[in-house]
Design a protein that fits this description.
164 residues, mainly alpha, 2 helices
Length: 164
């Protein structure tokens, strides 16, 4: 039973040692331990605050990235639209130039054909006239081969001149 009911002297010395230990711990250990606990608490709260600020910055950066992406897409779409318009205008311009050149070639070809046709007709007339003259010359030589025929022709021509 001695263990369950301690002696008064044991209680006194245990209490005294406890009070001295409590005094020493309060004087020398309690303040540094509280200081470290408070410093750790401040560091943790600063880290949490920093995490919140970082989270807000990340949200802001994400929103900014979304805006930049929207602007880039809009700019890309505008550039594609401009490129398509430029390409279509270039195609239309090329088509119109090709049509103009084709018209010029057609006009030039028609003029050339008409000029060659006129030259061919003129040459044909000249050849027909030359052939006609040759034929007339041969006929006239045949007709005028004798003196009697020449005299008769001269009289006939003289009569025709008098009638006019």
């Amino acid at each position: 039973m001695d263990l369950v009911l301690p002696d008064f002297g044991l209680l006194f010395w245990t209490g005294l040692v406890f009070v001295i230990l409590l005094f020493l711990l309060t004087k020398f250990a309690w303040k540094p331990i509280l200081g470290m606990v408070n410093a750790r608490e401040e560091k943790i709260s600063e880290a949490l605050a920093q995490a919140e600020r970082t989270k807000e910055e990340m949200k802001a950066l994400q929103a900014q990235n979304e805006n930049l992406l929207k602007e880039a897409r809009a700019e890309r779409d505008a550039m594609i639209k401009d490129a398509k318009e430029t390409a279509s205008s270039m195609v239309e311009e090329a088509k119109s130039k090709a049509k103009e050149e084709a018209e010029k070639l057609l006009v030039s070809a028609r003029e050339t054909i008409n000029a060659e046709k006129a030259a061919a007709i003129t040459e044909l007339k000249t050849q027909v006239a030359a052939i006609s003259l040759e034929i007339a010359e041969k006929v006239v030589r045949g007709e005028l081969s004798s003196d009697d025929k020449q005299t008769a022709l001269a009289q006939k021509l003289a009569e025709d001149i008098n009638l006019n």
